[in-house]
Design a protein that fits this description.
- By secondary structure, this protein is an alpha+beta fold.
- The protein has two domains: 211 residues, D-Maltodextrin-Binding Protein, domain 2 (3-Layer(aba) Sandwich), CATH 3.40.190.10; 223 residues, Periplasmic binding protein-like II (D-Maltodextrin-Binding Protein, domain 2, 3-Layer(aba) Sandwich), CATH 3.40.190.10.
- The chain is 34% helix and 12% strand.
- It has 17 helices and 16 strands.
- A hairpin with a 2-residue loop joins strand 10 and strand 11.
- The two termini are 21 Å apart.
Amino acid sequence: MRMQRRMCLAVLATALAVAGCSSSSKSSAGSTNSPAGGASSTPAGPATAPANASAGSGSAPAASSDASGNLTVWVDAARLPDAKAYAAAHPNVHVNIVTFDGDGNGATSLQTKIQLWNKAGSGWPDVIFSEQVNDPVWMAQQPFDFAADMGKALGSSVTSQWPKTSLAQCTVNGTLVCIQDNLAPVVLWVNQKLMTQFGYTVPTTWQDWAALGEKVAKDHPGYIIGTTGESFSHWIYFWSNQCPLEANVKDTNVTINVSDTHCTEMASLLDPLIKNGTVPPLSVFTPDFAKKYGGANDKVLMMPGAAWYAQSVFDSTLKIPAGEITSAPPLQWGTDTPVTTGQVGGGPWIISKHSSNMKAAADFVLWSTTVFNPDPTGADARPGLPGYGPLATSWLAGMATNKYFAADPTPAIKAAANQIWQGWDLVTYPDQPVWSNTVVTGLVAGKSLSSLMPAFGNGLSQAAKAAGYTVASH
């Protein structure tokens, strides 16, 4: 057992903590004004929210009945049904919905926009949803000074229903500046149909997973057990193995140590799998990936990934048929205990401190996080496990009966609740572009992951220093 292994303490059995992007959905930016109670479904023009948009189930405070006035909200495509449902249920609120990319994959577009709004002294939206879990960290500080006190806006009786680990990620200098829409621990997604067909046993350790990858390359070439081409791949693999890429963050200090054993051993484990093609440096969100590995004759045997991969990736993106996919618990490193895992997501809602309609802004966030829960098998289903405890229970119950899955995926998701490593902290700078530009490009060129780790560390250090951090390597 490694002495430095630390375990995330979960408050709610069904609550899972997260960092980074929270949905695979993408959208183009755009804005429209809509009639009272209306919501724009696309950037092209206004549309009234559908009359049948419903909140669904879930124990939650009722949205305030006296919310009214103008409200501008910025959301990604995955949260658009949510915003439209709010507009339909609140006819006294004139909702202007702007769809944008969610600042996903380490984008910094929101930084530029907020600086422009601050300079102009106007234009700030009332509410923003970000796919970037660390956005609120910089939003709450100078020179941006955007995020309002979410604890004051929603009240402690509501916010206490999130796990403490989730609230900690949204707390900056003692103030709760965001609330997480969903939680996204990494689990092992498994194609039960193919595993049975090939006679394989679902691995429980990273070493068994890697050994199976070597066997797959020989006996079933063309099939894959994961991917390293996501901008957040290091959150899946290196966070899970407690690699200190964003550790010991305090004020403006951060530790980045790619030479740590937890980093080098994971890189060494992945190298032969990348080389033999079972863990390709290709993103699941690219057309090439879907064409090569998705569809009716899919070749995804396994894939470590976030809880929200459930249908966002396998059904909606890759079009893998129903009855194949389920989840297994996070992989263990050898015999090390406790088991730890990473996370990819936990998209936060942020209220602007410049909002002139704080009541409606808080009401919208309340609706989005504690009320909205449509049929989990429908087109407008929430993309991930709700952060709000009572709603998480309802969501999991629906997911357990979803016929898309080969078996109930919720036990593995619940198991991951207590296993996210807390040694990975949130910082103000995005790290995904560093992985994409430094690592993925090198892997595509045929270089080994181990050989790219020094450059990856240097890139992270440069990003940290540019953001004003003092970087330690040990």
